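For practice. Supply one:
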Amino acid sequence: MGKYRSYRERINFETLSVESKSLKSLLSRELQNDYGLSKLESDVLSLRSLIWLQDMNSGPLPGQLLKSVPATPIKKYALTKRTKVKLTVVDINRDGEIWREFGLAVMQRGRALRLIYETWRQGGWASYSELSSLLNVTPNALSNRVRELKEFGVWLPHVGNKNNVLAGSESLFHSVIIKKFLDSERTENLREVFSLTVSDLELILRNAVTIWDLQNEGCEISKISQFVGLRSEEVESILSVLKDYAFDRKKSWEDLYQCYRSKGDGASVFSNSPIPGDSNEDKNLEDENLDLLDILEKEHGMSLISGRIYLRRLRELADRLSIENGKREGETIFFAISSDEGPRTRLSEGKIIPVCLEYFSPDDLEHGPRGSHKNRVSDLKFARILRYTTQTHEQRGLLSIPDLAMLMGIGIDAIRRLIKSNPQIVVPTRGLIKDIGRSVSHKCKIVELYLQMYTETEILERTGHCYESIEAYLKEFARVVTLVNEGLNDVMIRRVTGRSMSLVRAYLDLYQKYDNNPDYAFRIAHLRNVFAREDAEQKAAPSNEKKKLPFSHT
């Protein structure tokens, strides 16, 4: 029990550390610090702001990407008939909340369900082999994840499942949830099976009442579907379910309707939220600003000046995200802590920067379910770990192991095992670069590669470090070797060098490992000579003379 509790506490801490760098969290902190909103008010407005950002920016937001998918459910045409859709591969706050409450498997099921229905709503069809590659699981594991949904009667629109759902059927995702809820199914059970947060379930129920009101007012199905962001088949399916309960005057439906029904006149559901495709579709930017300013003033208590400043901030953010993301297929934006921040910097106080990652690459298919190993994805996972961390490091950011776990939707311990199983490759995570935690210092790995006769150019290609950093680490190691040969113990070496005790001992362990091996005597002697020569030159040279780097860039 104690082990399970400590595991849950660790998951909570690590997932929350990732969420603290999400766009929602950054907006929430800004609203609290700069606009004086309470935590609750800022959380609500930050969620709403993400929707506004989506309208301001036609490209993918952080966690979203453009991807080519099959345009047909027929398997033999899936590779030739394609269409491009926008998918939410990572929803940090939502995925993190589900992971903490229900576990990793439920979070993975939620991601699969989200991707399947997002693809279908944009005219595409999800392929299990391509989807499993995105989710870093095998097709068999993916089938196991969604089996419970099928047992609940949910129809999943994927390649090979070409039996179209007839209008009015009750097997679509939202329809099944609404029906189960009105049949008094426990909400906790519903949320776990369908991987829903509390706000997810509330939105589905609110949309059901909105759809009912709009239909009674004579609104066309196509316009209702655009308003709530669902396909026409989904709207018709929901109405089919609601008509049965309304006809029988079920108390569960009456209670739900009273809870979420539109207040005031019948047109209230349209206020400040014009239906796409309606006569107000071509509303200009000034009118949109007036609508949003009205919402900020009446619902969030902002002054006119504060509201204008905040909206301008959102539009600048939308423009910046549009520039950061090249809108190339497979790329997404993720927020990482700057590599300039020290190891002790709190995430809430450090500099967070957006980095553009190649989340999906065509080369991934060679390592994944469509490659030679249909039931093994370990090569795919490690290739992505190395790509994500290296690309982030090149953009002056650093990813932690929890960041990688959230990005890839796999366990934190699995990330650690994959890195540990490839000791010959330096993965530039934040823990390694900043010497956080119990992992072997990246400095020791770089020195060890040098002792193994790798050139500095080869080390640079493997680790992503610059020449100056590599040379600095080699000089640091050479100094420790010189000091231990002069008879100093590890405590004195720590005081002389100013390095941490763990790093000094790691250097000493590395020296003992290679010192008695004649195969590495040349490199050890070279390090000693270079340090002694440079030390003598520094003492003889004027203080303002530029120092030369002792190692060649070959």
About this structure: Residues 264-286, 543-554 have pLDDT under 50 and may be disordered. The two ends are 56 Å apart (CA to CA). Residues 165-282 form one domain. Residues 304-324 form the longest helix (21 residues).
